[in-house]
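Can't attach files on this board, so I'm pasting raw text. These are the components:
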Amino acid sequence: QSNVTLYGRVDLSVGNLKDKVKNTSTTQMFQGGDGGLTTSRWGLRGTEDLGGGLKAAFKLENRFNADTGASQDPYFKGESSLSLMGGFGEVKLGRSTTVYDDVRGLGQSRDVFDSAFTASSNGVFKSGGDYASRFDNKISYYSPNMGGFYAGIDVSLDEKAGVSQDKYAFKAGYKQKEFEVALAHQNEKDKSDKYTALAAMYDFGSFSVSGAYNQRKGSAANGDDSEYALGVTVPVGAWAFSGGYAYSKTKDSAGGAKNGKASGFALGATYALSKRTRLYAGYRDVVVKNNVGAKTKDERLVAFGMRHDF
Amino acid sequence: QSNVTLYGRVDLSVGNLKDKVKNTSTTQMFQGGDGGLTTSRWGLRGTEDLGGGLKAAFKLENRFNADTGASQDPYFKGESSLSLMGGFGEVKLGRSTTVYDDVRGLGQSRDVFDSAFTASSNGVFKSGGDYASRFDNKISYYSPNMGGFYAGIDVSLDEKAGVSQDKYAFKAGYKQKEFEVALAHQNEKDKSDKYTALAAMYDFGSFSVSGAYNQRKGSAANGDDSEYALGVTVPVGAWAFSGGYAYSKTKDSAGGAKNGKASGFALGATYALSKRTRLYAGYRDVVVKNNVGAKTKDERLVAFGMRHDF
Amino acid sequence: QSNVTLYGRVDLSVGNLKDKVKNTSTTQMFQGGDGGLTTSRWGLRGTEDLGGGLKAAFKLENRFNADTGASQDPYFKGESSLSLMGGFGEVKLGRSTTVYDDVRGLGQSRDVFDSAFTASSNGVFKSGGDYASRFDNKISYYSPNMGGFYAGIDVSLDEKAGVSQDKYAFKAGYKQKEFEVALAHQNEKDKSDKYTALAAMYDFGSFSVSGAYNQRKGSAANGDDSEYALGVTVPVGAWAFSGGYAYSKTKDSAGGAKNGKASGFALGATYALSKRTRLYAGYRDVVVKNNVGAKTKDERLVAFGMRHDF
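---
Top answer:
Structure tokens for the assembled complex are below.
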């Protein structure tokens, strides 16, 4: 069947989550997204050459919890899209990641593999829990690479009569072989939070680094957040070692109850059994403090796992 | 994998739905079935040659909303069937479209591509909202082509002890290269409505036409419905242009409160970028009036979209 | 696509279920698992050679009701697993059948095809309704074949802080070409029931037999169950004929209200239209009596069906 490629990934790990505030410890199997490298998935994708430099493409991607076999919701949570591509760039319709989420990914790309082990995950970056990584009903335009420069814009239609709650995101970046830097902004008009991300990556050959600065101009309920992360990844043969550090500071213009600080530290290693299969281990330590400096979260994750692509 | 074919379709459009009764207007992304050519789907199908002219076949088809990635319910809503085929025709078990629905499809085949733009859709044909297009627990027999004549029958088992609520449908038709006419009837014994459809298609080469006459002998809640539709499609190179008109009249033997009239007018065009990919535009205008002539619906749909088969 | 195999099975039958206690009779379409050979399914699986005798494998299997198109829940109910295999055996992570369930399957393998027609199904083996055939969050180790001997162990992590409700199962067996015997035990620590199974199979060439003895050390709510089954299967060309008998006795250490007896008798035949497609017929008669000898269930199933693998 040449029109469609069936692909996927199963990622499972076993580890321990220690809650140092509640003083509990749980040994668990993780489905990947919650304590491993990536969420498990299967999907269908294809590209058709329409002639004249024009191409059509589609992608449908289910996400599931491999530890229990449960599908995540909606069914094609990962992506459900249709694209038309050409010299002009790409127009994509449907559900897929926002360009803002792409730039966040770049900023964590060397920070323990942009995984559940990444230092900024699990509450260190407060914005992580409330921005939309994907938009439904989205019309996107991605520019072609213009001498290294690229840009993209997303518009998600609110589909409601009498209100104006479309969501927007845009990004602009510059990419060379060893270097990439990008800026993005996301505005979800159905809530008052606005998100800005600045991210960069540099590959020095024997190691590579990524850095992120995010800013949330938040609602009264969320507060304003300033977020910083740095990661380094070192490939050694079939191994890749990585470490990351993340820090955030939340300010509350209203009263101060939202004020707080959070930090995370993470280490990880992967070992490639083949191009498609790797074993991995990860460690992540997260501390979140409220406006009077009390720890509201102090959590340590350690896990060992396996990831297989097909 | 020779035993199974993986196939599907992604259909997405962007347009405007104007409600002239409420005086609202909404710009939307449509998943196809609600404002485009067809509902998006993916499926598995296969045929096995058993020798002696006998074949086994199966089809499993999921329908989904491509604008949000949500699966429709049940999972294999489109079809979930197993067939045995031979010189005797075909016996099919499981869930699939009724033969009555097939004939309705024939009657709208040239009426803006039997799509969301079709003149009779969205309330003009009152029966459209209450007949079952597919039966579960269905045993079907489809005759072979007998000198142009064909027939089919569906029985859906009620699976309840002590009641007799099986559902039935049958069709009979005649088909030549340029011409097809068919009659169908559907009786869903768990409600008192009965449906009859007469449909025809003629292909004149430079254009083709389809016509439909449906009749619902309805329950007190629904009333009796007489429904008429006419469509014409003109292919011009990679383009196809189509227009349709539909009209219905509802009579209420009880009091008269169900009396009413409805009409729809539709225009559409498709442009084939390839055999598998097309761009399209459509327009549909629907007016529904109640027993005193007041408009209960006055709606206009305009949308532009893309459909890709794989 | 060499990395993944798409496979499945559609099994549908039509038959009659007669409840001789309520004196009702229902003609139904069965989805396979409830009145046919097996539950319908589709799945993805693959194996990757990692070199050095090591292999990675995955399997994702959805189960669905082919009569209505509904997916069973969770989505990959059949299996969702990732394995690493080598000379040491196999380590499997995720959701899949327990080794105890494997041994139960062996004990019914010649008893009308381990299907819905199997004599012990539908209430004769009381344990059938309450043991977990699959574990989530499971770590399994399966030994290699060691001169005919094999063993396996399952551990399912409870994933709860402060409790110890992991589930366990193990099996040990011996297998030759014509003969197999195995013992298994399952302990689900979130309830007080414990399950033990002893199973054997012998293939005499012109016919083969299977036998099962199961024991449930039950909670107060369930009682203790002793279960026996015998089955014989006779292949004749494209046909296979099979019959089975099962019996169980429940003892209640507490009061006696749980005391009771149950028996089942079953007959079936399959006819292979090809390697992948078969027609079948089955008959199953089940009687369950309570502590005073009154029939609480007296049920007869007759069905004819078709099963197709892809």
